[in-house]
Amino acid sequence: MAYRFLKELDLEHLPVQQAGQAQPERVHRVAVRNVCAMEDSLADRFWQRLSPLLGSAGARAQMLMDIQSSAEAIEAICARQHSSPGALETPSRQAYCWLKFLSKEENLAAHLAALERARAALEDCPPRFTSPIVLHLVNMRALWRKRPYSNLVLFQVSEGFLNAEPEIWGALIQSMVDGRRSPLSGRIRAFADSDDFSEVLAEIESFAELPGASTQGCAHNLEASFARVNAGYFGGSMPRPRLVWNRTLTGRKFGHYQRSTDTVMLSVSLDAPAVPAWVVDYVLYHELLHKKHGFSVLNGRRFSHTQAFRSEERLFAEHEAAEHFLHRLARRAGEPAEC
Q1: Closest residue by Cα to residue 103 from 256, 260, 223
Q2: Contact in structure between 199 and 110 (CB atoms under 8 Å)
Q3: What is the CATH number of domain 213-332?
Protein backbone atom coordinates (compact mmCIF):
# COMPACT_ATOMS: atom_id res chain seq x y z
CA MET A 1 0.00 0.00 0.00
CA ALA A 2 2.88 2.37 0.80
CA TYR A 3 4.47 1.48 -2.54
CA ARG A 4 1.25 2.22 -4.45
CA PHE A 5 0.85 5.53 -2.63
CA LEU A 6 4.41 6.66 -3.45
CA LYS A 7 4.22 5.39 -7.03
CA GLU A 8 1.04 7.36 -7.77
CA LEU A 9 2.23 10.66 -6.28
CA ASP A 10 2.01 13.48 -8.81
CA LEU A 11 5.43 15.02 -8.22
CA GLU A 12 4.55 18.05 -10.35
CA HIS A 13 1.55 18.95 -8.17
CA LEU A 14 2.47 18.14 -4.60
CA PRO A 15 0.62 20.16 -1.92
CA VAL A 16 2.83 23.06 -0.90
CA GLN A 17 2.80 24.88 2.42
CA GLN A 18 1.79 28.46 1.67
CA ALA A 19 3.63 31.39 3.21
CA GLY A 20 2.01 32.40 6.47
CA GLN A 21 -0.09 29.22 6.64
CA ALA A 22 -0.13 27.67 10.10
CA GLN A 23 2.01 24.59 10.44
CA PRO A 24 0.12 21.49 11.61
CA GLU A 25 0.82 20.65 15.22
CA ARG A 26 3.03 17.68 15.80
CA VAL A 27 1.16 15.03 17.73
CA HIS A 28 2.76 14.10 21.02
CA ARG A 29 2.54 10.33 21.26
CA VAL A 30 1.47 8.91 24.60
CA ALA A 31 3.00 5.72 25.98
CA VAL A 32 0.86 3.68 28.37
CA ARG A 33 2.24 0.42 29.68
CA ASN A 34 0.47 -2.93 29.42
CA VAL A 35 -2.47 -1.85 27.24
CA CYS A 36 -1.84 -4.70 24.79
CA ALA A 37 -1.31 -7.09 27.69
CA MET A 38 -4.67 -5.95 29.05
CA GLU A 39 -6.29 -6.79 25.69
CA ASP A 40 -4.66 -10.24 25.66
CA SER A 41 -5.78 -10.91 29.23
CA LEU A 42 -9.39 -9.96 28.52
CA ALA A 43 -9.46 -11.96 25.26
CA ASP A 44 -8.23 -14.98 27.21
CA ARG A 45 -10.89 -14.49 29.90
CA PHE A 46 -13.57 -14.38 27.20
CA TRP A 47 -12.43 -17.73 25.85
CA GLN A 48 -11.73 -19.51 29.13
CA ARG A 49 -14.97 -18.32 30.79
CA LEU A 50 -17.20 -18.40 27.72
CA SER A 51 -19.83 -20.78 29.15
CA PRO A 52 -20.36 -18.82 32.41
CA LEU A 53 -20.44 -15.53 30.49
CA LEU A 54 -23.06 -16.85 28.09
CA GLY A 55 -25.13 -18.40 30.85
CA SER A 56 -25.07 -15.70 33.52
CA ALA A 57 -26.29 -12.11 33.16
CA GLY A 58 -24.39 -11.28 36.35
CA ALA A 59 -21.12 -12.58 34.94
CA ARG A 60 -21.62 -10.54 31.75
CA ALA A 61 -22.43 -7.42 33.77
CA GLN A 62 -19.24 -7.83 35.80
CA MET A 63 -17.21 -8.33 32.63
CA LEU A 64 -18.75 -5.21 31.12
CA MET A 65 -17.77 -3.22 34.20
CA ASP A 66 -14.20 -4.57 34.01
CA ILE A 67 -13.92 -3.55 30.35
CA GLN A 68 -15.30 -0.08 31.02
CA SER A 69 -12.96 0.38 34.00
CA SER A 70 -9.97 -0.63 31.87
CA ALA A 71 -10.89 1.89 29.16
CA GLU A 72 -11.46 4.63 31.75
CA ALA A 73 -8.07 3.91 33.33
CA ILE A 74 -6.36 4.43 29.97
CA GLU A 75 -8.29 7.66 29.40
CA ALA A 76 -7.28 8.93 32.86
CA ILE A 77 -3.59 8.27 32.19
CA CYS A 78 -3.82 10.09 28.86
CA ALA A 79 -5.63 13.00 30.50
CA ARG A 80 -2.86 13.33 33.10
CA GLN A 81 -0.48 13.77 30.17
CA HIS A 82 -2.83 16.42 28.69
CA SER A 83 -3.64 14.20 25.74
CA SER A 84 -6.20 11.64 24.56
CA PRO A 85 -6.22 7.95 23.57
CA GLY A 86 -5.96 9.02 19.93
CA ALA A 87 -2.31 9.87 20.61
CA LEU A 88 -1.44 6.40 21.89
CA GLU A 89 1.15 4.37 20.02
CA THR A 90 -0.58 2.31 17.33
CA PRO A 91 -0.76 -1.11 19.09
CA SER A 92 -2.01 0.50 22.32
CA ARG A 93 -4.51 2.67 20.44
CA GLN A 94 -5.91 -0.38 18.64
CA ALA A 95 -6.28 -2.21 21.95
CA TYR A 96 -8.00 0.82 23.54
CA CYS A 97 -10.45 1.09 20.62
CA TRP A 98 -11.26 -2.61 21.03
CA LEU A 99 -12.02 -2.02 24.72
CA LYS A 100 -14.27 0.94 23.92
CA PHE A 101 -16.10 -1.09 21.29
CA LEU A 102 -16.76 -3.90 23.78
CA SER A 103 -17.84 -1.36 26.42
CA LYS A 104 -21.21 -1.30 24.67
CA GLU A 105 -23.42 -4.08 25.99
CA GLU A 106 -24.73 -5.13 22.58
CA ASN A 107 -21.20 -5.38 21.16
CA LEU A 108 -20.06 -7.54 24.08
CA ALA A 109 -23.05 -9.83 23.55
CA ALA A 110 -22.22 -10.13 19.84
CA HIS A 111 -18.57 -10.84 20.70
CA LEU A 112 -19.50 -13.70 23.02
CA ALA A 113 -21.93 -15.11 20.45
CA ALA A 114 -19.14 -15.06 17.83
CA LEU A 115 -16.83 -16.96 20.18
CA GLU A 116 -19.58 -19.53 20.68
CA ARG A 117 -19.79 -20.04 16.91
CA ALA A 118 -15.99 -20.36 16.82
CA ARG A 119 -16.04 -22.94 19.60
CA ALA A 120 -18.69 -24.98 17.77
CA ALA A 121 -16.59 -24.86 14.58
CA LEU A 122 -13.56 -26.09 16.53
CA GLU A 123 -15.54 -29.02 17.91
CA ASP A 124 -16.58 -29.99 14.38
CA CYS A 125 -13.00 -29.85 13.07
CA PRO A 126 -10.83 -33.00 13.31
CA PRO A 127 -8.12 -32.46 15.98
CA ARG A 128 -4.64 -31.81 14.62
CA PHE A 129 -2.86 -30.62 17.76
CA THR A 130 -1.90 -32.37 20.99
CA SER A 131 -2.03 -29.03 22.85
CA PRO A 132 -5.32 -27.26 23.61
CA ILE A 133 -6.48 -24.47 21.26
CA VAL A 134 -7.23 -20.98 22.58
CA LEU A 135 -9.01 -18.48 20.33
CA HIS A 136 -8.87 -14.70 20.72
CA LEU A 137 -11.13 -12.35 18.75
CA VAL A 138 -9.22 -9.04 18.74
CA ASN A 139 -8.64 -5.81 16.83
CA MET A 140 -5.89 -6.47 14.30
CA ARG A 141 -5.17 -5.83 10.63
CA ALA A 142 -4.49 -9.44 9.67
CA LEU A 143 -7.49 -11.72 9.12
CA TRP A 144 -6.04 -14.38 11.41
CA ARG A 145 -2.79 -15.64 12.95
CA LYS A 146 -1.74 -18.96 14.47
CA ARG A 147 0.86 -18.99 17.26
CA PRO A 148 2.00 -22.35 18.65
CA TYR A 149 3.37 -22.41 22.21
CA SER A 150 4.71 -25.21 24.37
CA ASN A 151 1.43 -25.65 26.26
CA LEU A 152 -1.22 -24.38 23.79
CA VAL A 153 -1.93 -23.20 20.25
CA LEU A 154 -3.26 -19.63 20.00
CA PHE A 155 -5.59 -18.66 17.18
CA GLN A 156 -6.03 -14.89 16.81
CA VAL A 157 -8.91 -13.71 14.61
CA SER A 158 -9.86 -10.19 13.52
CA GLU A 159 -12.86 -8.65 15.28
CA GLY A 160 -14.16 -7.99 11.77
CA PHE A 161 -15.51 -11.56 11.79
CA LEU A 162 -17.87 -10.60 14.64
CA ASN A 163 -21.01 -11.22 12.57
CA ALA A 164 -19.71 -14.15 10.51
CA GLU A 165 -22.10 -17.06 10.06
CA PRO A 166 -21.16 -20.58 11.29
CA GLU A 167 -20.01 -21.69 7.82
CA ILE A 168 -17.50 -18.82 7.66
CA TRP A 169 -16.18 -19.79 11.10
CA GLY A 170 -15.89 -23.35 9.84
CA ALA A 171 -13.77 -22.15 6.91
CA LEU A 172 -11.64 -20.00 9.24
CA ILE A 173 -11.00 -22.83 11.68
CA GLN A 174 -10.17 -25.23 8.85
CA SER A 175 -7.67 -22.77 7.36
CA MET A 176 -6.00 -22.15 10.73
CA VAL A 177 -5.84 -25.85 11.54
CA ASP A 178 -4.44 -26.75 8.12
CA GLY A 179 -1.97 -23.88 8.25
CA ARG A 180 -2.20 -23.28 4.53
CA ARG A 181 -4.56 -21.98 1.87
CA SER A 182 -7.59 -24.23 1.72
CA PRO A 183 -10.46 -24.53 -0.81
CA LEU A 184 -12.54 -22.57 1.70
CA SER A 185 -10.21 -19.53 1.65
CA GLY A 186 -12.34 -17.83 -1.01
CA ARG A 187 -15.31 -17.77 1.36
CA ILE A 188 -13.16 -16.14 4.04
CA ARG A 189 -11.94 -13.47 1.62
CA ALA A 190 -15.49 -12.84 0.38
CA PHE A 191 -16.67 -12.17 3.94
CA ALA A 192 -13.63 -9.95 4.60
CA ASP A 193 -14.79 -7.88 1.60
CA SER A 194 -18.33 -7.57 2.95
CA ASP A 195 -20.19 -4.69 4.62
CA ASP A 196 -20.36 -6.65 7.88
CA PHE A 197 -16.59 -6.96 8.16
CA SER A 198 -15.62 -3.42 7.22
CA GLU A 199 -18.36 -1.75 9.28
CA VAL A 200 -17.14 -3.44 12.46
CA LEU A 201 -13.52 -2.38 11.93
CA ALA A 202 -14.51 1.16 10.97
CA GLU A 203 -16.63 1.48 14.11
CA ILE A 204 -13.75 0.24 16.26
CA GLU A 205 -11.31 2.71 14.71
CA SER A 206 -13.70 5.61 15.24
CA PHE A 207 -13.28 5.52 19.02
CA ALA A 208 -9.92 7.32 19.02
CA GLU A 209 -9.07 10.23 16.80
CA LEU A 210 -5.84 12.19 16.87
CA PRO A 211 -5.94 15.15 19.28
CA GLY A 212 -6.36 18.41 17.42
CA ALA A 213 -7.39 16.53 14.26
CA SER A 214 -8.14 18.98 11.48
CA THR A 215 -10.79 18.86 8.77
CA GLN A 216 -8.14 20.33 6.45
CA GLY A 217 -6.33 17.57 4.61
CA CYS A 218 -3.49 17.86 2.14
CA ALA A 219 -5.81 18.33 -0.83
CA HIS A 220 -9.38 18.56 0.52
CA ASN A 221 -11.19 20.25 3.38
CA LEU A 222 -14.04 18.31 5.01
CA GLU A 223 -15.56 21.54 6.35
CA ALA A 224 -15.88 22.95 2.82
CA SER A 225 -17.20 19.62 1.53
CA PHE A 226 -19.88 19.52 4.25
CA ALA A 227 -20.95 23.09 3.45
CA ARG A 228 -21.42 22.19 -0.24
CA VAL A 229 -23.29 18.95 0.45
CA ASN A 230 -25.49 20.40 3.19
CA ALA A 231 -26.53 23.35 1.05
CA GLY A 232 -26.98 21.34 -2.14
CA TYR A 233 -28.80 18.25 -0.85
CA PHE A 234 -30.19 18.97 2.61
CA GLY A 235 -31.27 22.59 2.23
CA GLY A 236 -28.76 23.58 4.89
CA SER A 237 -30.78 21.71 7.54
CA MET A 238 -28.37 18.82 8.27
CA PRO A 239 -26.83 19.25 11.76
CA ARG A 240 -23.05 19.20 11.43
CA PRO A 241 -21.48 15.98 12.71
CA ARG A 242 -17.86 15.70 13.80
CA LEU A 243 -15.79 15.47 10.63
CA VAL A 244 -12.46 13.63 10.64
CA TRP A 245 -10.02 12.01 8.27
CA ASN A 246 -9.01 8.53 9.32
CA ARG A 247 -5.30 7.77 9.66
CA THR A 248 -5.05 4.66 7.48
CA LEU A 249 -4.93 4.36 3.70
CA THR A 250 -7.80 2.12 2.63
CA GLY A 251 -8.53 0.42 -0.65
CA ARG A 252 -12.18 -0.37 -0.04
CA LYS A 253 -13.82 1.41 2.85
CA PHE A 254 -13.85 5.12 1.96
CA GLY A 255 -16.19 6.42 4.67
CA HIS A 256 -17.98 5.57 7.89
CA TYR A 257 -20.65 7.18 10.07
CA GLN A 258 -20.37 6.46 13.80
CA ARG A 259 -23.80 7.11 15.28
CA SER A 260 -22.83 6.92 18.96
CA THR A 261 -20.39 9.83 18.59
CA ASP A 262 -22.10 11.52 15.60
CA THR A 263 -18.85 11.32 13.64
CA VAL A 264 -18.27 11.08 9.89
CA MET A 265 -14.87 9.63 9.10
CA LEU A 266 -13.46 9.71 5.57
CA SER A 267 -10.47 7.74 4.35
CA VAL A 268 -7.24 9.62 3.76
CA SER A 269 -7.09 7.64 0.50
CA LEU A 270 -9.43 10.34 -0.84
CA ASP A 271 -7.23 13.21 0.32
CA ALA A 272 -5.16 13.46 -2.85
CA PRO A 273 -4.99 16.01 -5.70
CA ALA A 274 -6.01 13.28 -8.17
CA VAL A 275 -9.35 12.79 -6.36
CA PRO A 276 -11.93 15.38 -7.51
CA ALA A 277 -13.74 17.36 -4.85
CA TRP A 278 -17.11 15.99 -6.06
CA VAL A 279 -15.93 12.45 -5.23
CA VAL A 280 -15.16 13.54 -1.66
CA ASP A 281 -18.57 15.26 -1.58
CA TYR A 282 -20.26 12.06 -2.75
CA VAL A 283 -18.69 9.89 -0.03
CA LEU A 284 -19.55 12.52 2.58
CA TYR A 285 -23.13 12.67 1.21
CA HIS A 286 -23.37 8.87 1.49
CA GLU A 287 -22.31 8.98 5.14
CA LEU A 288 -24.68 11.85 5.94
CA LEU A 289 -27.50 9.72 4.52
CA HIS A 290 -26.57 7.09 7.12
CA LYS A 291 -26.97 9.83 9.75
CA LYS A 292 -30.37 10.78 8.29
CA HIS A 293 -31.85 7.31 7.67
CA GLY A 294 -30.36 5.27 10.52
CA PHE A 295 -30.73 1.51 10.13
CA SER A 296 -33.30 -1.26 10.32
CA VAL A 297 -32.95 -4.57 12.17
CA LEU A 298 -34.03 -7.91 10.71
CA ASN A 299 -33.36 -11.24 12.40
CA GLY A 300 -30.84 -9.58 14.70
CA ARG A 301 -28.80 -8.03 11.87
CA ARG A 302 -28.50 -4.34 11.02
CA PHE A 303 -29.27 -3.12 7.50
CA SER A 304 -28.24 0.42 6.60
CA HIS A 305 -28.59 0.49 2.81
CA THR A 306 -32.40 0.42 2.66
CA GLN A 307 -34.46 1.13 -0.45
CA ALA A 308 -35.15 4.67 0.77
CA PHE A 309 -31.43 5.16 1.36
CA ARG A 310 -30.50 3.97 -2.14
CA SER A 311 -33.20 6.10 -3.77
CA GLU A 312 -31.91 9.26 -2.11
CA GLU A 313 -28.28 8.31 -2.78
CA ARG A 314 -29.02 8.35 -6.53
CA LEU A 315 -30.08 11.99 -6.27
CA PHE A 316 -26.41 13.03 -6.10
CA ALA A 317 -25.64 14.86 -9.33
CA GLU A 318 -22.48 12.88 -10.16
CA HIS A 319 -23.68 9.61 -8.62
CA GLU A 320 -22.66 7.29 -11.47
CA ALA A 321 -19.39 9.10 -12.17
CA ALA A 322 -18.44 9.05 -8.47
CA GLU A 323 -19.23 5.34 -8.17
CA HIS A 324 -17.14 4.66 -11.28
CA PHE A 325 -14.23 6.70 -9.87
CA LEU A 326 -14.33 4.90 -6.51
CA HIS A 327 -14.39 1.49 -8.20
CA ARG A 328 -11.34 2.46 -10.28
CA LEU A 329 -9.60 3.72 -7.14
CA ALA A 330 -10.43 0.46 -5.36
CA ARG A 331 -9.24 -1.67 -8.29
CA ARG A 332 -5.83 -0.01 -8.10
CA ALA A 333 -5.68 -1.29 -4.52
CA GLY A 334 -7.00 -4.69 -5.61
CA GLU A 335 -10.29 -4.47 -3.66
CA PRO A 336 -13.97 -3.73 -4.43
CA ALA A 337 -15.12 -0.22 -3.50
CA GLU A 338 -17.50 0.65 -0.70
CA CYS A 339 -18.63 3.83 1.06
Answers
A1: 260
A2: no
A3: 3.30.2010.10
